[in-house]
Amino acid sequence: MILIDANLLIYAYDASSEFHERARAWLEGTFSSGRPIRLSWSTVHAFLRLTTHAAIFQRPFSMREAVEIVESWLALSTVDLLEPGAAYWTIFRQLLDKSQIRGPLVMDAHLAALAIEHGAILHSADRDFLRFGGLRVVNPLARAS
Predict the structure, then answer these.
(1) pTM for this one?
(2) pLDDT of 17-37, one tens digit each?
(3) What is the residue range of 11's domain?
(4) CA distance 143 to 96
(5) In a domain, 102, yes or no
(6) Domain for residue 10, yes or no?
């Protein structure tokens, strides 16, 4: 199961991003792969917040456009939302303690805990996730050496 971080979704829809083409191709391939894809509510919220923000997104979507994009993902039979389960708090707290997390990295710890709890592989272009022991993370935009 793949858990997708917001940065990949944003790059796929931001034509001004240097990562746009690779992210778009990856996202289309992933959505059509038949593999189970999961999103967290925090990822959905970040996508909506950032893609509609004129100071961040060069050509922001209207909220209606952004919501329609999210609904198109959720309408796919392989896409669902991933919710915290019974072990989430314990895993999350351990990640906070062991990785000395504070500030903006709390949201990264949240995604890491979700992925670990559910045995998902987190797909992200954010190197900060490498700090979390026990997390399987893949950067699909990394160029092969």
Answers:
(1) 0.92
(2) 999 999 999 999 999 999 999
(3) 2-138
(4) 30
(5) yes
(6) yes
Question: How large is the average pLDDT for residues 37-41?
Answer: 97
Does position 82 have pLDDT exceeding 70, yes or no?
yes
Alpha-carbon distances, residue 89 vs 68, 93, 137 (angstroms): 32, 6, 20
| CATH code: domain of residue 133 | 3.40.50.1010
Exposure string for 94-132, b = 16+ CB within 10 A, e = fewer: bbbeebebeeebebbbbbbbbbbbbebebbbbbebbebb
Q: Give how many domains the chain has, as a whole number.
A: 1
Q: Would you say residue 144 lies in a domain? A: no
